[in-house]
Amino acid sequence: MKIFVSIPALLIPLSTPLVTMPAHSAPSVSKTEESIMTTDATTWWDDRYGDGYLSSMSYSQDSVISYGGWQYAAYYNHNRQVEIRRRQLPGGNWDSLTLSDYTQTENDNHNNISLGISPRDGRIHVSFDHHDSDLHYRLSVAGVANYPTSYSWNSALFSSVQSHLDNGTVNPLTYPRFITASDGTTIFEGRIGQSGNGESWLWRYNNDGHWTELGKFIENSYNGGDANAYFFGIQFDTHNRLHAAWVWRENFGGNSNHDIMYAYSDDYGRTWRNNAGRLVAVTGQSFITRDSDVKIWTIPTNSGLINQEAMVVDLQGRVHVLARRDIDGSNRQVHYWRDTQGQWSQMDTGIKTKIWDNRSKLAYDKDGNLYAIMPNIQIASASADKHYTDWTVVNLDDNSRYTHSEPLIDFYGLKQGRDELYVYAQKGTVKQTSGDIAILKYQLNGRPFQGWSLCANEGQQCEFSGTREVRYGYDGAYNSGTFTDVAECSNRVFGDPIYGVEKTCEIQLNQDESARPWMYCAGENQTCQFQGIRTVRYGANGHYFYGQHSDGISCSNSAFGDPVSGVWKSCYYK
User: Fold this and answer.
1) Which of 151, 190, 529, 550 sits at 20 to 30 Å (Cα–Cα) from 121?
2) 10 Å Cβ neighbour count for 93?
3) Distance from the Cα of residue 248 to its chain's centroid
């Protein structure tokens, strides 16, 4: 059965199990390697656009790539020059080359590096140092990626810096990315124009060192103003369908982000269709705008919705988006996913975050289980066979060792289905920066998780069901106590186990337990829909009224009373 949620101009089925979920723990993750790729990365970091290092930002769709048994990664060294490293997997030494004829000078962490590989001619592509500026692009000689042992790894393999792909200078460019299909077709996508007023363009690689401009496919102008598409991601699935998901931004400020959009292309970006399969754009001729029928979820402005967070397409063809937003007056990660029949679902993960904290990434295993690699680095997971209702933080091995780094993912490796997750992250804590960039390797086990699970950051409420031990602290220094249903994650309640750093709360899980027994079903003044009899709670921040209800209930003060005045509330059911 499906529960339908009405959204303007679109009817979206919310795939939610209609029976009480059995106790179940999410898939576990174990760390198997930490390879320090370099100790010489630039330590400049920027807190204006997210608290991140120049070399490790969420909109770098590919800064680490596994291909043909080798791994490639790029960064800015201490001289702000692009370095590209490679190693033979699984554990070879890193070879390095420096592109020393160009120096990056802008103190702006938009100016990221993106890598690409075109399999049909074996070239490596690199685009770097853009924020509303001319394209900076280099490509290697043919065959380097396909026959790596035949080439000495040095800068002579790469061309000089180019500002064009096809017809003239590409300008003003931001957020470049190379996207490669399973059949080897490679395209390049980038924003032309400025924040709030940019447009999305495509080029297709000819497999001979040259590109063909396809043109614009998303336009800024609409009936009422200008809006800029900010992508969660653009990725091919295993059948060469190209999927794109994004938010609209109305102006320069992130508070104007709103809604989640989706479109796909079955001809490498030449034509685009909405979720229902209707043609919405022909690249270079007619364009997607804010007026187009591409919205799959309504999220208003000023909702804490951050742009360019996370998107993946798993091996089964399901599209997943992770986007934080305000629920109950707190900012939380929300998982949106499209099944193979084109139906979208929404799941509040229960994982609390900050509105403008560093962004996360998504990964998957061969069975379609999902993994969120969050700031600092914390890893959460959810099970495909549970319809992703069991989100749990399952790995804290590297928690708070990478404070200024937005984790990046080796998507190329995931597509090989080996259940190995490679994460690119630059070290650094709240008090100390670092020039070390690590490639962290995790095994995606699929086995049930047991251990300590993150439930709140300092200053938030740690909510759970029943009586549990809760610990509060950081990096091995914890104070703990026993609480029922909720614990305030603060020095006031626990004392201060470690002075001067931000702390977290964690709860102990056993193998047969889930961290999230309550399932989000509606926001205040919406309808919590279900069939049969359910226990429903209404409230926020540890303050709830409870009741048993049949076949749905209005999520409102009139139905439950007001458990906590002056804040936005939500409904959850068991």
Assistant:
1) 190
2) 10
3) 17
Read off the tokens for 63: 């800064």
**What's CA 301's distance to the chain center, in Å?**
20
Cα(114)–Cα(411) distance, rounded to whole angstroms? Answer: 13
Residue in the block written with tokens 């926020």: 540
Exposed / middle / buried, residue 143 (Cβ in 10 Å: 0-12, 13-18, 19+): middle
167: tokens are 């017809």
Three-state SS for 380-430 is: EEECHHHCCCCCEEEECCCCCCECCCCCEECHHHHCCCCCEEEEEEEEECC
Residue 10's pLDDT is 30
Residue 277 exposed, middle or buried by CB count within 10 Å (0-12, 13-18, 19+): exposed
Q: What is the DSSP letter of 290?
A: T
3-state class of 255 per DSSP?
A: helix
pLDDT at 36: 95
Distance from the Cα of residue 337 to its chain's centroid: 13
Please say if the pLDDT value at position 531 is more than 80. no
Contact in structure between 116 and 62 (CB atoms under 8 Å): yes
Helix residue ranges per DSSP H, 14-164 = none
pLDDT in tens, 47-87: 666 667 888 888 888 999 999 999 999 999 999 999 999 99
- Give me the amino acid identity at 234: I
pLDDT digits (tens, 9 = 90+) for 354-390: 777 788 999 999 999 999 998 888 899 999 988 898 8
Please answer whether residues 85 and 37 qualify as being in contact, where contact means their C-beta atoms are separated by less than 8 angstroms: yes
**Preceding peptide of 90 cis, ω within 30°:** yes
Name the token pair of 150.
């035949």
Within 227-294, strands assigned E span 228-236, 242-249, 257-265, 271-273, 279-282
* Whether the predicted pLDDT of 11 surpasses 50: no
Separation CA 397–CA 377 (nearest Å):
8
* 548: three-class secondary structure by DSSP: strand
**Mean pLDDT computed over every residue of the chain:** 87
- In eight-state DSSP terms, residue 293 is S
Q: One-letter amino acid identity for 501?
A: V
Q: Classify residue 223 as exposed, middle or buried by CB count within 10 Å of its CB (0-12, 13-18, 19+).
A: exposed
Contacts within 8 Å (CB) and 24+ apart, 138-146? 138/99, 138/162, 139/209, 142/209, 145/67, 145/68, 145/70, 145/72, 145/117, 145/119, 146/68, 146/119, 146/122
Which of 307, 426, 306, 316 has its CA nearest to residue 364?
Answer: 316
Residue 100 CA, chain-centre distance (Å), reads 32
Region class of 441: left (phi > 0), else alpha (psi between -120 and 50), else beta: beta
pTM: 0.80
- Whether 108 and 46 have beta carbons less than 8 Å apart is answered as yes
Position 110 scores a pLDDT of 87
Nearest Cα neighbor of 116 from 31, 32, 203 is 203
For 19-46, how does the pLDDT look when each residue is reduced to its tens digit (9 = 90+)?
Answer: 223 334 688 899 999 999 999 999 987 7
Q: How far is CA 6 from CA 11, 12, 297, 423, in A?
A: 5, 7, 10, 38
429 CA to centre of own chain? 21
